[in-house]
TrEMBL record:
<keyword id="KW-0540">Nuclease</keyword>
<dbReference type="InterPro" id="IPR008538">
    <property type="entry name" value="Uma2"/>
</dbReference>
<dbReference type="GO" id="GO:0004519">
    <property type="term" value="F:endonuclease activity"/>
</dbReference>
<feature type="domain" description="Putative restriction endonuclease">
    <location>
        <begin position="27"/>
        <end position="192"/>
    </location>
</feature>
<dbReference type="InterPro" id="IPR012296">
    <property type="entry name" value="Nuclease_put_TT1808"/>
</dbReference>
<dbReference type="InterPro" id="IPR011335">
    <property type="entry name" value="Restrct_endonuc-II-like"/>
</dbReference>
<keyword id="KW-0378">Hydrolase</keyword>
<protein>
    <submittedName>
        <fullName>Uma2 family endonuclease</fullName>
    </submittedName>
</protein>
<keyword id="KW-0255">Endonuclease</keyword>
<dbReference type="Pfam" id="PF05685">
    <property type="entry name" value="Uma2"/>
</dbReference>
Length: 204
C-alpha cells in the first residue's frame, strides 16, 4: 500500500527539487515504512515488505556480502537521489561505497555512486519496479539493476540490466526462478535463485 503526499508550492529561493527533497528529509516516517519520490506526485509512503520479500533480500544480501570489498556495504534502507530526473528511491538493496555514505555533503547518496541496486517486486510495486524505477536507474545512471520478479507474467524471473546509456539499459539477462543469475565484475558472482519464494508462497 502506498500513500501519496500532497505537495505544496516550493518556498521562495528553492527549486522544485530542493523543496521536495527538503520535504522528504523532514518527514516523520512510521517504523518499517519507506518514503520515496517515484514520480511527479511528490513523496510516497511505501508499506513494510512481506516475509517472502524479506527472505529474498536476505538471501541476496548474504551472497553479495561474500564478495564485495571491505569498504563497500549492502544497505536495505538507504535513500538514493536521482536529481537528473528529480526522483529519490529507497531500493530493497543497494551496494554503495562507505566513502559516499559517510560524506555529509552528498546526503542522500547520489544514485550514480551505487555499484548495484536490487528491487524485489511485490503485488503493489509491479509498475514502479518494472517501469518507473527501470527508467530512473538507467537515467542516473546506475551500472547494474537486478530486478527480482515473482509476478512476471511469463513466470517468476530475475533480470539483470546492464550498460546504461541515453536513458536506457542496453543489455538485459533474464533467468527463471531456480536458475543462477551471474553478476559481472566487480562482483564476479552467481546468485542461486532456487530458494526464492514463488507466488503461492506469498501472502494473498
Amino acid at each position: 500500500m502506498s500513500l501519496a503526499m500532497t505537495e505544496a508550492a516550493p518556498a521562495v529561493g528553492l527549486s522544485r527539487w530542493d523543496y521536495v527533497l527538503r520535504t522528504w528529509r523532514e518527514l516523520d516516517v512510521p517504523d518499517g515504512w519507506r518514503a520515496e519520490i517515484i514520480d511527479d506526485n511528490g513523496v510516497v509512503l511505501v508499506a513494510p515488505p512481506s516475509d517472502p520479500h524479506n527472505y529474498i533480500a536476505v538471501r541476496v544480501n548474504r551472497a553479495l556480502g561474500n564478495v564485495i570489498p571491505d569498504d563497500w556495504d549492502v544497505y536495505q534502507t538507504l535513500g538514493i537521489q536521482l536529481p537528473v530526473v528529480e526522483r529519490l528511491y529507497v531500493p530493497d538493496l543497494v551496494v554503495m561505497p562507505e566513502s559516499v555514505v559517510l560524506d555529509p555533503s552528498v546526503s542522500p547518496c547520489p544514485a550514480e555512486e551505487a555499484e548495484l541496486v536490487v528491487e524485489i517486486v511485490s503485488r503493489s510495486s509491479m509498475d514502479v519496479d518494472r517501469r518507473k524505477k527501470l527508467w530512473g536507474y538507467a537515467h542516473a545512471p546506475v551500472p547494474l539493476y537486478l530486478l527480482i520478479d515473482a509476478w512476471d507474467d511469463m513466470g517468476p524471473s530475475v533480470t539483470l540490466y546492464e550498460q546504461p546509456g541515453n536513458g536506457r539499459y542496453n543489455h538485459a539477462t533474464t533467468v527463471e526462478f531456480g536458475e543462477k543469475i551471474g553478476l559481472p565484475e566487480p562482483f564476479g558472482l552467481e546468485i542461486d535463485t532456487s530458494r526464492f519464494p514463488r507466488p503461492d508462497q506469498w501472502p494473498s
